[in-house]
Design the sequence.
């Protein structure tokens, strides 16, 4: 693991501005020489917290004069924002990084790597040793160090640029003042806290992101308000465990620090907002106050993602989750009676070390009772540096795969049954954009976070002649970020098919 978080070195706000200015001078001279702005490309792996960090990195790059590039190969700066939660993301990162090697022969881009993997010595050393064409590495959530990293790289000897290791550096100051470049202007990701204190025995996050740190209540509200003023219809509040928001402040003596319930209520009352979402909730910290807010505030999403992980109390203890199946099911009952039709989704891990058939059956029993509307299901994969990695037994994998198949089949039935309940109903959908596979299909999300596809064209690509039918309402002015009404015509396991109807 990397150095203790207390031993980090810091960049002040004044230094941040000074390094921004150095890079801005460089981009200005680049534009003078070439007639074009230098370009950047960011490849992001992992969770929405990483998406948010990439938005900040992009905002900083834009402010320094860079513009988005079409591909890594065609860009002047390439950044990788890494994730260490699952082995799959590690491997994909190394694959993408390796694929940049051939272009090192010619005019090479400046390459930087940041994110959770760069908080682990094993990956830091692997990058430095095997991919020595990487110019700099930063830790997780280190957007404020980016201008320093780029200025140091530009000032270093161009013929032989060793990887500059800035993984022990952090920036001082609140993210509210940083520029943000949002890929989806109608959706604002807002970090409310970083780090985690829970130390689930399978999870690397507390080691890579450090301990819980809540952002200031006022700054979160201000950032959310500003995002809505600029057109955001959806706010997504982010934290590893949003339900413990403010606990660190209370531990440090600020006894009246606001809770997550208060924060969620305040944000849900911002005029112009359609929905506020939040993730992730930990069952041990889900309070009655929060359930009250979920039940009363109509702009709070009609959905909660509440990771169960396992239905076996023995496994939950070994995972260090600090709740049992009875507590979890009690929460499910409270939530379902607090808000009519609320969708409850979850995470499940199959094959945690020494999981027995009885443990697995206990998980199925909880699933039967909870009737999850959807679930993210994972085969346990050991993460070096976590306690559970030492308990891993590869010889069990065949039986674990059988269990996984059985669990996925059951959940698929539940997901389909849940989606089927919406057939024939008119629901509102926040339009995200065109489907990737078909330009004549739009996709969006319901208030309870279900994916909906329906025929239509975005305003920018719409022509009347192509779309004149008496049977289907022609969506003359559909844009990304519009809220439209659709009639659900058919349901699948993962999405709903619909047609748009005239808004009142
Ligand atoms: S709550 Fe557990 S699983 Fe979630 S980030 Fe913290 S340690 Fe990891």
Sequence:
């Amino acid at each position: 693991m990397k150095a203790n978080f207390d031993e980090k070195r810091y960049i002040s706000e004044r230094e941040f501005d000074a390094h921004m200015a150095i890079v801005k001078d460089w981009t200005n001279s680049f534009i003078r020489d070439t007639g074009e702005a230098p370009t950047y490309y960011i490849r992001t792996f992992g969770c929405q917290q990483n998406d948010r960090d990439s938005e900040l990195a992009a905002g900083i790059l834009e402010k320094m004069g860079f513009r988005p590039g079409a591909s890594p190969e065609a860009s002047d700066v390439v950044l990788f924002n890494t994730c260490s939660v699952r082995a799959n993301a590690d491997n994909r990162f190394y694959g993408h990084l390796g694929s940049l090697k051939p272009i090192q022969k010619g005019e090479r881009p400046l390459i930087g790597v940041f994110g959770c993997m760069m908080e682990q010595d094993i990956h830091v050393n692997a990058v430095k040793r095997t991919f020595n064409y990487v110019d700099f590495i930063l830790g997780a959530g280190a957007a404020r160090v980016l201008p320093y990293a780029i200025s140091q790289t530009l000032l270093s000897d161009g013929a032989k640029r060793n990887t500059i290791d800035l993984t022990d550096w952090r920036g001082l100051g609140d993210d509210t003042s940083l520029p943000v470049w949002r890929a989806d202007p109608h959706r604002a990701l807002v970090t409310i806290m970083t780090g985690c204190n829970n130390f689930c025995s399978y999870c690397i996050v507390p080691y890579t992101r450090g301990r819980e740190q809540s952002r200031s209540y006022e700054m979160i509200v201000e950032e959310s308000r500003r995002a809505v003023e600029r057109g955001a219809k959806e706010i997504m509040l982010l934290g590893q465990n949003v339900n413990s928001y403010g606990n660190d402040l209370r531990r440090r003596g600020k006894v009246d620090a606001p809770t997550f319930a208060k924060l969620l209520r305040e944000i849900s009352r911002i005029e112009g907002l359609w929905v506020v979402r939040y993730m992730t909730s930990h069952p041990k910290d889900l309070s009655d106050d929060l359930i009250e807010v979920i039940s009363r505030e109509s702009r709070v999403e009609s959905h909660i993602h509440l990771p169960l992980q396992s239905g076996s109390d023995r496994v939950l203890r070994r995972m260090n989750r600090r709740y049992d199946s009875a507590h979890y099911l009690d929460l499910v009952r409270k939530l379902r009676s607090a808000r009519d039709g609320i969708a409850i989704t979850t995470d499940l891990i199959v094959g945690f070390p020494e999981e027995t058939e009885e443990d697995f059956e206990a998980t199925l029993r909880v699933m039967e009772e909870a009737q999850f509307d959807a679930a993210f299901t994972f085969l346990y994969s050991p993460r070096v540096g976590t306690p559970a990695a030492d308990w891993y037994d590869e010889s069990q994998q065949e039986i674990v795969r059988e269990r996984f198949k059985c669990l996925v089949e059951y959940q698929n039935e539940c997901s389909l049954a849940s989606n089927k309940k919406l057939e024939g109903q008119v629901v509102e959908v926040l339009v995200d954009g065109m489907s990737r596979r078909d330009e004549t299909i739009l996709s969006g999300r319901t208030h309870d976070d279900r994916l909906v596809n329906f025929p239509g064209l975005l305003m920018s690509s719409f022509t009347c002649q192509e779309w004149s039918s008496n049977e289907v309402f022609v969506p003359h002015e559909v844009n990304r970020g519009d809220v439209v009404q659709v009639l659900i015509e058919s349901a699948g396991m993962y999405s709903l098919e619909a047609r748009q109807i005239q808004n009142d």
In short: The two ends are 57 Å apart (CA to CA). Residues 196, 198-200, 203, 205-206, 240-241, 282 surround iron/sulfur cluster (CB under 6 Å). The longest strand covers residues 426-434. The domain at 175-418 is CATH 3.80.30.20 (pyruvate-formate lyase- activating enzyme).
